[in-house]
Amino acid sequence: MRYVSTRGAAPTLDFRGATLAGLASDGGLYLPDTWPTLSRAAIAGLAGLSYAETAARVMAPFVGDSLAEGELLALCETAYGRFSHAAVTPLVQLDHDQWLLELFHGPTLAFKDVALQLLGLLFERFLTGTDQRLTIIGATSGDTGSAAIDAVAGREGIDIFMLHPEGRVSDVQRRQMTTVLSPNVHNIAIRGDFDTAQGIVKAMFNDADFSTRFQLSAVNSINWARLMAQVVYYFYAAVRLGGPDRAIAFSVPTGNFGDVFAGHVAARMGLPIAKLIVATNVNDIIARALATGDYARRAVEQTPTPSMDIQVSSNFERLLFDLGARDGHAIAAQMHGFEGSGAMRLTNAQREGAAALFASDRVDRDDMTIAMRWAHDQAGQVIDPHTGIALAAARRADLDAPIVTLATAHSAKFGDTVERATGMRPALPRRVGDLFDREERCDTVDATFAAVSDYVAARASPRG
Ligand SMILES: Cc1ncc(COP(=O)(O)O)c(C=O)c1O
Ligand SMILES: N[C@@H](CCOP(=O)(O)O)C(=O)O
């Protein structure tokens, strides 16, 4: 399997190369050059497999010969062995046709663990026997940061620098990052929002000298391996609800468009999906783009769903590329236009292609609260606010199919909002330990490329 950049000008790479590179050198994102497909029989054959076995089957075509036979399964067994539920991503029934897919049973209580536990092992595997070091640069609105730090803390040959917007993540999210005191972990609170942090990270990758000198790599969903691992749970859930013989819909709380793009990949691979509901909070750039064709940036509003307070959704570029005849030069022009003016228009092919699979819904705070209350009072489930956004969209969607809402975080990560909605305060699971008693380590830095790159350069190990 070869990987191509959405902007058409970077060299094609194999899976190992794309995983270590993160972002393509032309500023684009890597995608497989063709979509592998699973036959209906192969999909049906996933039904009796464990999560790790399903993962190895679904991901094998993407990995190709970057790993030896049997290695992928062994890595999946190690990664998913750290989850606290035997099913890894269990399904819970809410009512007749509404389901929750619980993605928060990993070490840091959010769906990011599903991909990042594996990515940490892939980095280690690909560095073993080489003299390469990696400097991981990431931006987080709360959950990617802790999951990535957990996945690489203490690993040989890796330094991680994680930017989060100061004061805009929950206390649990912040502490899950800042209380990890391993010497290879560097937490940076920036005086700005998530989009600014993500922009600085991309600028560091696009600085060829800096990127080469420190051998930058990514843990955000700009890294293809992140998305690949997230494709698995669409298959895992669908076959347990009757797939591939009936099509299932998924409602996905959306920010950076990574999780829902993984659903698009599952559909491309042959999984019958009735609809992917893109559920946003009031930071609704994607919902507007899908409804009107105008992808136009607005100021970020702070909400009780901080992980979705995003206006520049990195992975939307992957969708536009895939629906736009995979014309890298056209996407580069479209994206440069957006980067310059903050707005762009989708082509007819992109709009029509998106409408065939995606529906979108913007959910405000009141409707999110009603959904959280309904889950608690009527279905006995305490859900986090991000899940509440997607459940609200799922409950008002007019679809003739079972709808699976992706439950992306544990409710205890957002205790205040959950308590306001349901009247009960969820307890932190024992596996996160004494989070509120631990020492924190974090530096605050101005939200500029110069300030952050100086900070990193002073601490990272340059290539030997
Ligand atoms: C809890 C939670 N839900 C939803 C999202 C949005 O997912 P994505 O950025 O893949 O669209 C995030 C952040 O990524 C998150 O942390
Ligand atoms: N909501 C995310 C933002 C980064 O998204 P990613 O999926 O691209 O890593 C977070 O929790 O950090």
TrEMBL record:
GO biological process assignments: threonine biosynthetic process
Keyword Ligase: no
Molecular function, one GO term: pyridoxal phosphate binding
Highest taxon listed in the record's lineage: Bacteria
Transmembrane spans: none
Catalysed transformations (reactions): O-phospho-L-homoserine + H2O = L-threonine + phosphate
Keywords: Amino-acid biosynthesis, Lyase, Pyridoxal phosphate, Threonine biosynthesis
Domain called Threonine synthase N-terminal: residue spans: 2-80
Residues carrying N6-(pyridoxal phosphate)lysine: K112
Cofactor(s) listed: pyridoxal 5'-phosphate
Pfam annotation, one family: Thr_synth_N
Pathway: Amino-acid biosynthesis; L-threonine biosynthesis; L-threonine from L-aspartate: step 5/5
Keyword Lyase among UniProt keywords: yes
UniProt record similarity statement: Belongs to the threonine synthase family.
Listed name of the protein: Threonine synthase
